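Is 2-acetamido-2-deoxy-beta-D-glucopyranose placement plausible here? Inputs below.
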Amino acid sequence: MRCPLLLLLLGPLYTVIQAQQIYVKETLTGIIDQEAILPCTISSDPNIRVSQIMWEKGGNSIAVYSPQHGTHVSEPNRYQLLEPSPSSATLRILSLRAAEEGDYSCEVTLFPAGNRKATTKLAVIAVPQNSAEANSEALANGEEQTVATCRSSNGRPPSRITWQTSLPGNVTTIMTNGTNGTYTVVSRYVMTPTSQADGMPITCNIDHESAAVPIPLRLSVMYPPEVTVEGYDDNWHLKRNGVFLTCSAKGNPHPTSYTWKTADGSSLPPTVRAKDNMLYVDEVDERVNRSFLCEVTNALGSRAYRQDVLVREKPNYSGAGATGGIIGGIIAAIVGIAVVVTVILICRQQRKNQTATDDEDFEGPPAYKPPPPSIKLQMEKQSAEEMPLKSIPPPSESTDGPEMELNGKTPPKYQMTPESQRYSALQDDYVENENPIYNVFPGPVNASPREEEGIVMSPAVYV
Ligand SMILES: *[C@@H]1O[C@H](CO)[C@@H](O)[C@H](O)[C@H]1NC(C)=O
Ligand SMILES: *[C@@H]1O[C@H](CO)[C@@H](O)[C@H](O)[C@H]1NC(C)=O
Ligand SMILES: *[C@@H]1O[C@H](CO)[C@@H](O)[C@H](O)[C@H]1NC(C)=O
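Reply from A.M.:
I modeled the complex. Tokens:
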């Protein structure tokens, strides 16, 4: 016998038949190809005798137990009675098939009370195999197409599939019946994809008796490059230098090449340097007064962005230029104040030192202009007596000068601004650009080394 507490807990699931009690499970769920155990127990009563216990389904006897005649099972390779006795006859179904779903009755013949029966409703389920994938071939071409497919195979009962996404679309679901009572459900999310849908999340929710399975996906939508150009501030004036245009592009697959052109088809003016997605202008002149195209290519094609450039005779002080001027003025003012404060502080400190060490020499106000702070700092290190007031050694330019000429091609370090370093590097790259090997052998789509260079370069330019 089972633990009475367990019976108490399972109480609602058991059917109680009149005075004589027959206990079965009201409902039972078995898994296809696995065994199922259907208990049937009879409460003992010394005044009543159990003469037979029979399991039957749909009017057909499956297994019979009689204390007098023993056990008889219709198909012993499918059914068994586990340790039958006048108080219990548990039916075991060895390997469940979908067809074995249904109502199983445990019918007990009592003497002298007659027949009593209780019924178990057996459900047979199959755990489906679930999968989902985004359609990597989806194309932003204005046509409706499947962007994601979700599949729940060989489940019983059939799975219910729903989709969760912020993107508007329609769902088409197809169910096919398997031979063994299982179902395969395939659901497709259909929409007209745009480039904005690329990379967006979508979740397929598969709901089944065995489990609820969410499968998150990211859409993949192929689209030709979407190009923008930045860097033109409407203040390109004659003689301005160090300006550049930056071409940015998105695309799926990843863009593989950036090409700069003039809008009228003429060759690029010699004052500009094209380097991948960057267009550098050494010094603005009339030849830059034109429209430029940045053409970007990926596997789906090429798209261009047109940037009109207006070269001005004089700087434009309205708009961005004026803002820059104001900011520049504020910075200049702050720097100026800082310098003045530093000079005053150093003067005071120096005066203290002087009065402390030698009063006689520096009593009167010396008739010289205080040298710049950097030189003053050097002077402080020397003792007050040795301090040369006017014979400050000239800056090192005079000694470096001849050396610079002798060295010829290698200029001194302090002249090598980041700008000029970049351009000397550019000279080499520009030659490479004229003979573009990469056009013949396009590099890996995701990590185009040329674009990485372009990204690395831009911060250096801002310095
Ligand atoms: C869904 O299908 C209907 C009928 O085919 C269509 O009119 C509608 O545009 C579709 N909606 C989306 C978001 O694709
Ligand atoms: C598939 O199964 C469903 C539900 O059991 C049933 O209604 C339908 O007739 C079956 N279809 C085929 C083709 O067997
Ligand atoms: C650039 O071209 C515009 C007309 O397209 C003209 O008005 C302007 O003066 C030109 N700038 C220079 C510096 O030549």
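Short version: Residues 320-357 form the longest helix (38 residues).
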